[in-house]
Amino acid sequence: MIHISLSPNLEPDDVFLALRWLSSPFSWTGKKNQEKLKESLQQLFPQTQAIFLFNAGRSALMLGLKALNLPPGSKILLQAFTCSTVPNAILWNNLTPEYLDIQKEDFNLNPDILPQNPVAKALIVQHTFGQPANMEKITTYCQKKKLYLIEDGAHSLGATYREKKIGSFGDITMLSFGRDKIISSVFGGALLVNNKNLVKPVENLYQSLPYPSFSWTAQQLFHPPVTFLSKKTYSFYLGKLILFLSQKTKLISKAIYPKERDQQTPPFFPRRLPEPLASLANHQLKKLTRFNRQRQKNAFYYQENLRQSKITKPLWNPEGIYLRYPILLEKPEKLKLYLKKHGVIIGKHWYPQPITPANNLSLLNYQKGQCPIAEEACRQCLNLPTHPTIATKEVKYITKLINQWSA
């Protein structure tokens, strides 16, 4: 079976590392690995003024927004076709998300429709699927309009724009080390502070943050061995049962908590990144170049070899790292079912609605019809796997299946 989102980065050495931490809980209170991770990120982003580690990307964004000290109700510009954790972080700070439409060739914010007289105080730019947004136009706009620029780097660690690292442009940048991101510590994230005037406000807020509980940390450490075993036995239905029982008994946690769908702040955010998860993140960061080269190679194979006439491919960007390879077609669910019948589990794709997941979009300040291009992309988009643990023969197999498919 081929999975797109079930711990796609996971390799045996990551599993052994998680098991090693589970066997030595007395060492969880150290800080050595947190410092190592910060040093590794500093080498990747040498211009960054300060780096702060969190238990999730949403925690980093929540605290980063709070450090801006904006008046209550201030508007924050962001694109539709995004994860609900982004507008939730805005709302949890008593601020107001204001959505802008995308361009379908790269699923990023369309810089040509930015409001000429914004009342917003900041703009969050997402680099969707690891494809860099047009940072020349966006940075110029923010400088001219005196807006804070926040980069959402959840999909794009290692990508560049005109040979400059994504994450180097904003006043602050949020990174995510979630279970299906570029590198994974199951849960985790970082805030890069590039504006020296924001270092002290962020640091003051950060000092009061606690670490997550030992039980929460243990849940994340169980995730690598449980999902590794589940993937190995998925074809025999045992894997599904292992996954179901592990979540039901709360041995492992889900990526999104139910309260987040109702815009309530979960009790686990914001928190610092615990020592064991910092170790997992730093271990995977050492693989970043190899991981991203494989993602680019896999995405390029799709780009060059998908011949299905019903499918629209994205505009190729050699500086993107392609966390997933998005395609557009009418009624993508039919192709999704076809692939599943042939052993390719696409799962929940990004994104079936303009903000995902969400029970009620109006609670996120989004009204139907507000961003028509994003809404159309949500109806048509399907993501193909590019992760570094997928074999080249499997990418070729998926491509062959799609080319042979008839709706």
The number of domains: 2
Level-1 CATH class name of the largest domain: Alpha Beta
Counting H and I runs of at least 4 residues, what is the number of helices? 14
The CATH topology of the largest domain: Aspartate Aminotransferase, domain 2
Category by helix and strand content = alpha/beta
Distance between the termini: 22 Å
Estimated share of beta-strand residues: 5-15%
Choose one word for the global shape: globular
Report the CATH architecture of the largest domain: 3-Layer(aba) Sandwich
What are the low-pLDDT stretches, counting only 5+ consecutive residues below 50? none
Helix content range: 25-40%
Structure description:
- The chain is α/β, with parallel strands linked by helices and 407 residues long.
- It has two domains: 181 residues, 3-Layer(aba) Sandwich (Aspartate Aminotransferase, domain 2), CATH 3.40.640; 117 residues, Aspartate Aminotransferase, domain 1 (Alpha-Beta Complex).
- Helix content is 38%, strand content 15%.
- The protein contains 14 helices and 17 strands.
- The strands form six sheets. It has a seven-stranded mixed beta sheet, with helices on both faces. Strands 1-15 form a two-stranded parallel sheet. The chain has a two-stranded parallel sheet with strand order 4-16.
- Helix 3 crosses helix 6 and helix 11 packs parallel to helix 14.
- It is globular.
